[in-house]
User: What shape does this take?
Amino acid sequence: MIPLLRTEMIKAARRTRTYVIALGLIVLPAVIVFALNSRGDHGPGRERGDGLFRLAQQSGLLVPAAVLSIMSGFLLVVIAGMFAGDSVASDAGWGNLRYLLMRPVPRGRLLIAKAIVAGTLIWACTLLVALTALVGGAIVFGTNAVTVPSAIGGGVAGFHLDASVLLLRLALATGYVAFGFTALLALGTFFSTLTDTAAGAIGATIGVYIVSEILDGISQIGRIRYGFPTHYLSAWEPMFTENRLPTDMLVGVAVQIAYLAVFGTAAVIWFRRKDLRS
Amino acid sequence: MPMPIVNVTGLWKNFGEVSAVEDLSFVVEQGQVCGLLGPNGAGKSTTLRVLMGLERPSRGTAELFGVSVQPGCGELIRVGAMVEQAAFVPHLSGMLNLRLWWEALGGHLRDADLDTALGIADLGDAINRKVRTYSQGMKQRLGFARLLLARPELLVLDEPTNGLDPGEIRDIRELIGRLTREGATVLLSSHHLSEVEQTCSHLVVMNHGKLVSSGTVAQLVGSTGSVYVEVDDRERARTVLSALPSVRNLHLQGDGLVVDLHDGRRSDLSVALMTAGLRLETIAPAQRLEDAFLELLEGPARDLTPSETPVAVDATEAQ
Assistant: This one.
């Protein structure tokens, strides 16, 4: 398995697209830090919905949380969808997949290796965003402790977060955000086994997430929303705004594992049985 | 009888209501260069894909080295295959493509037959360029390099000379000849009948997914009923042969006669000519593979080899 992981990682990592994404994930948090530091509209109307961004001006240790909250909603979803949807379909599209299978690399092992590589790249991207924001935030705003006023915490009284707590929660938040793409990884890998067109698999993966986000916003749907892959993606934010470890995070992890089990199994079964026509 | 290298028995491959391959049986034995011939849609590529574990048979079996082929079958490691055109990861160099393909199963590229492979590819410094900059011919040559890395005992080649220029086609023909002399067995499909005629010892002809005929090249070319005859008295021979019920038609050609037979038995002619006191100088098939191929596609299926099912031909017969 290790040699296969190594060869698959080289193939994925040496694409121009991967370099561009990495560059973008360094530049964009830096731009956000710059924007946070600029003089903007600080009027009363700006206090709603941007709690993490307001707090981030107190300490660079909160900048990664702010950046992750905004980037995990769309940009990281697109990037994760790209890595997951592309995993098998790109090799099939190039015609290289049949040569790997004639080597002969066992199908199940190849699929798992490709999913692990895609997952590793998704984790690496999330980590890159967090680290860039942390470095940029620390340089611009320092590494101070944070005092959260009651207005941001909603009904919660104001509280104090020192630097070590912030760092610990930041690590937890980054891990949760990265793990939050597990369902997307499983869906993308599954779609990737269905087609030889990488764009189709990527589009389907991202499409499912967009539909999930839209439907999740309609409360009339009821409890069914709790099973959507996007429902618990922001469950980590109360660690910084309400000074608590949300139990929703555990439910979110369970939902992600459920998607991984269902669609990961489906992908393996389908890929092992399918006729390879490309 | 030695174990066949390739043994296809009662193979069916259906796609919904359509049968791409129907009840196909043939064997390829050690040292043969077997050509899989047929028009577009005959089922050649599907047969090769099933044989390489890329597709599952609907019915029947495909065996390599006596083992039924399944996806990921271990015997595939003894096979060097090029199915349809050679394909690579376009954003990596030719050399890195070879390395990653080889090392996907573990080990190091230095364990492979790299010198031979690079000699075949003959890409010079281009081996370190990205594959997306290669011409089709360069990719095809790199494809040959890749399949030779593992010193395969069996080569499975689907239209191997597509995209190659005449010089490269000759090189590939010579390569196949050299590998066969070194003990390799070859199964190749091709549309280039002259290439097949020069390269192959045996043929399996398919049409509409079914076996049309199989045997040695000489048997197939000679089986279709046109015979060229040279004798010491051509006019008398014409009279003698015209009287035979098995002769359909005859006409003069060069120094001899071309005789079209109903049932393809050349021995009838030689017996009749010698009984009439004529001296037989030459009696041989009058047509080339192209004629035989087209005639086979229009006629009923024929098994030219008097052997057990499935069709088998002694490898030494045509060599």
About this structure: Residues 306-319 of chain B have pLDDT under 50 and may be disordered. The radius of gyration of chain B is 23 Å.
